[in-house]
Amino acid sequence: MTLPVFDRHEIARSWLPRYTGMPVEEFGDYILLTNFNNYVDQFAERFNCKIHGQSRPMQAATNDDGLTIVNFGIGSPNAATIMDLLSAVCPNGVLFLGKCGGLKDTTEIGNFILPIAAIRGEGTSMDYMPPEVPALPSFKLHKFVSDRLLERDLEYRTGVIYTTNRRLWEHDHSFREKLDQLTCIGIDMETATLFIVGHHNSIARGALLLVSDVPTTPAGVKTEASDAAVTSKWVDLHLDLGIEAMTRIGEQGEQIRHFRY
């Protein structure tokens, strides 16, 4: 018996709607990624658009301007999955609206970070690129997001994010010493994976991270109550910045080209 042969693109086109519940044809040219349902809910309410995938692993919505938002869940494997599946639609740009822990005295709750790179401490990205390949955003996309922040007179930070698979590390003193030695500005569970798998799939990508906790301080470890406070105070602005940046980059931004060497 001869089994049918499917190419990678066909598989992605099949699985993207299976995971999100949204037809491939409804995905826009620019994509916002998030880890949280409330971002998708607020997006859909703002633009009066349908949320797909309520019973699926991921939820997605697209507005009349052709901007799509996807909640892909939490963690490095999910980040790799969505960036693989988005290769089915070859988006012009993807921006991750994520949260991270601040690791510097100058990085406070509510600060925004545009990471210049991410350290690949998660392991998933090793299935896509050798360890020597740096996890980098697309410069033109980040430059455009930076301009939107400056237009609003908003300060932001830049630096290197450490991406880990570990959710409970705050009391591991050797791991914390390692983070100090690496001089990272923040820590999360997705950014390096998104950058590497985006590079692997020739997708322009970036991340605008919101500092939601300062886990190396005694009172700074995230709790459900502290995260709810961050959400109520800063998430509207976070989402608004992402919508504005990815809407306007399609109208005004330079073409983002992806080069493979």
Task: Walk me through the topology.
Blueprint lengths: L7 H13 L9 E5 L2 H11 L11 E4 L4 E5 L4 H10 L7 E10 L9 E10 L17 H13 L5 E8 L8 H10 L3 E3 L2 H10 L4 E9 L10 H29 L9
Parallel strand pairs: 1-3, 1-4, 4-8, 5-6, 6-7
Antiparallel strand pairs: 2-3, 4-7, 5-8
Description:
- It contains 7 helices and 8 strands; from the N terminus they run αβαββαββαβαβαβα.
- It is an alpha/beta fold.
- The protein has one domain: Nucleoside phosphorylase domain (Rossmann fold).
- Strand 5 (112-121), helix 4 and strand 6 (157-164) form a beta-alpha-beta unit.
- Helix 3 (76-85) runs parallel beside helix 6 and helix 4 (139-151) crosses helix 7 (224-252).
- The longest helix is centred in the C-terminal third of the chain and has 29 residues, at 224-252.
Task: Supply the CATH superfamily name.
Answer: Nucleoside phosphorylase domain
CATH class: Alpha Beta
Q: What is the CATH architecture assignment? A: 3-Layer(aba) Sandwich
What is the total domain count? 1
Q: How much helicity do the residues have?
A: 25-40%
Strand content: 15-25%
What's the total helix number?
7
Shape: globular
Task: Please give the number of β-strands.
Answer: 8
First and last CA, distance: 40 Å
| Overall pLDDT score | 91
